[in-house]
């Protein structure tokens, strides 16, 4: 890669409920290459690669009606077994994340306790303390007995207070969380108790959406698609932090946390990392700039592509001779010896004596460590955006060759697949840095850093060849694709949370 001198909703089904319709979603990073996981396996595995893919994950995309049918099937079966209403059965399922085998085991050992734990029946002691009265415990008005309503806890309130209570909560987006109004009473209200209390069809439709949202979110095998205005539900057999993609809106996300896919970093760690990046954004601003100084001539330069192998051709003019600087964008080290030193470029060197130094020194060391990992995280994110532009140029070049009868799309498809695979590998590499930042020092971290460095070296080799595809034959490029993907799979196999 050369450098430049610096200068100053989708359609919706009418029959589908949209559980996300009132929630604002953040825009995804625009630098990603769409569908870069698709269409590259053959180019890699035909080279004799191990067919095992640590990211392989089976999932199904369900419409609203399909997911509702699945939920109702579980509910009807459990209601018959427990001999309770359908509405109560749903609350029991929500409480135990729809794990029917666990519910049946608990029911077998103690049926009454199961309903108490599901918050649909009170404990016997609390039930005994309730006294009959014709006064509403909220408005303190005398009410005729037929206008007093209560749950199984027998806390009685007038119909008007119940209506106001349910209306306010549903307007606030509450579904299964509507509970008894009595102080310290946690009993949940079944949906067949709430629906007659809602004064309008509009409010009932909202409540229906919120219930569906809560039923799906509580189900250990289901996740709502986080795509804007998308009503689809993702179903899996075994919930894991794996990559899933909606077949309606093409949203890609982690099944476990519904955030951007983040392998090999686990869900809790990526949340910590993103929070830290947001909190320290001002501190990190100075390294977020696109520019650096050339290590030879100190001229301010800017990357114009994703590759971190820099060649600055305007460096060190001497008479009529033109010299070039050949260096690494990240560490500014000489690229000629970089192959053997790449491990040092991606590994942060801890200060073993820092614990014995002052608090100020420890704070400076902590900031230095964070900036080291943040700069590499941010750099690969920017490289992804720049390589998306390379991908577009490759597509245009293929189109031009096809139009000039220099082959078909199939003949040149490997160039497009190489750019897709490059994005796939770099995306994984970007998420290795939060993983390394929070990782405890020791032999396992040394192994991780070694594999991370190997992956990074092969990605830079692939990036260099993709940007100069005309200088390499197809076999050379596909061989580099194979090597890079194998490095990626090896790292994920050893370190991806299962």
From TrEMBL:
Residues 12-37 have a biased composition (Acidic residues). Gene3D superfamilies: 1.20.120.1750, 2.20.25.20, Zinc/RING finger domain, C3HC4 (zinc finger). Its EC number is 2.3.2.31. It is found in: Cytoplasm; Nucleus. InterPro entries: Ariadne, BRcat_RBR_TRIAD1, E3_UB_ligase_RBR, IBR_dom, Parkin-like_IBR, Rcat_RBR_TRIAD1, TRIAD_supradom, Znf_RING/FYVE/PHD. Residues 1-11 have a biased composition (Polar residues). GO terms for biological process: protein ubiquitination; ubiquitin-dependent protein catabolic process. Residues 1-40 are annotated as: Disordered. This is E3 ubiquitin-protein ligase ARIH2. It comes from Onychorhynchus coronatus. The gene is Arih2.
């Amino acid at each position: 890669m050369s450098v430049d001198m610096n200068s100053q909703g989708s359609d919706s089904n009418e029959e589908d409920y949209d559980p996300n319709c009132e929630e604002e979603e953040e825009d995804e990073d625009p630098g990603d290459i769409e569908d870069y996981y698709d269409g590259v396996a053959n180019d890699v595995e035909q080279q004799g690669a191990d067919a095992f893919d640590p990211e392989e994950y089976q999932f199904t995309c369900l419409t609203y009606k399909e997911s509702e049918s699945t939920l109702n099937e579980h509910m009807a079966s459990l209601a018959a077994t427990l001999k309770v209403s359908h509405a109560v059965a749903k609350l029991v399922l929500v409480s135990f994340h729809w794990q029917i085998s666990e519910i049946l085991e608990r029911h077998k050992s103690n049926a009454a306790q199961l309903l108490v734990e599901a918050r649909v029946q009170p404990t016997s002691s609390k039930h005994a303390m309730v006294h009959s009265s014709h006064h509403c415990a909220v408005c303190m008005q005398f009410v005729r007995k037929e206008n007093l309503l209560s749950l199984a806890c027998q806390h009685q309130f007038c119909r008007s207070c119940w209506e106001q209570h349910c209306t306010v909560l549903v307007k606030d987006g509450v579904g299964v969380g509507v509970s008894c109004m009595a102080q310290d009473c946690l009993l949940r209200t079944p949906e067949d108790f709430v629906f007659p209390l809602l004064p309008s069809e509009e409010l009932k439709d909202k409540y229906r959406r919120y219930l569906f949202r809560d039923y799906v979110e509580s189900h250990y095998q289901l996740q709502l698609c986080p795509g804007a205005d998308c009503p689809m539900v993702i179903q899996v057999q075994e919930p894991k932090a794996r990559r899933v993609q909606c077949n309606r809106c093409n949203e890609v996300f982690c099944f476990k946390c519904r955030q951007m896919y983040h392998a090999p970093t686990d869900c809790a760690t990526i949340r910590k990392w993103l929070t830290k990046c947001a909190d320290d954004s001002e501190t990190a601003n100075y390294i977020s700039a696109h520019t650096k100084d050339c290590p030879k001539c100190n001229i301010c330069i800017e990357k114009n592509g994703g590759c971190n192998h820099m060649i600055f051709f305007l460096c060190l003019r001497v008479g009529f001779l033109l010299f070039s600087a050949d260096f690494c964008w990240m560490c500014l080290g000489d690229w000629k010896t970089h192959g053997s030193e790449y491990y040092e470029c991606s590994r942060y060197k801890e200060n073993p004596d820092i614990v014995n130094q002052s608090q100020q020194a420890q704070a400076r060391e902590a900031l230095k460590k964070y900036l080291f990992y943040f700069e590499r995280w941010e750099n690969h994110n920017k490289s992804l955006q720049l390589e998306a532009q390379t991908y577009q140029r490759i597509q245009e070049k293929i189109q031009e060759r096809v139009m000039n009868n220099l082959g078909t799309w199939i003949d040149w498809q490997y160039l497009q697949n190489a750019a897709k695979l490059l994005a796939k590998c770099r995306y994984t590499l970007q998420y290795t840095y939060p993983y390394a930042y929070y990782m405890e020092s020791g032999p396992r971290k040394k192994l991780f850093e070694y594999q991370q460095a190997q992956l990074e070296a092969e990605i830079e080799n692939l990036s260099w060849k993709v940007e100069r595809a005309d200088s390499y034959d197809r076999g050379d490029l596909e061989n580099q694709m194979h090597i890079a993907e194998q490095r990626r799979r090896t790292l994920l196999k050893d370190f991806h949370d299962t």
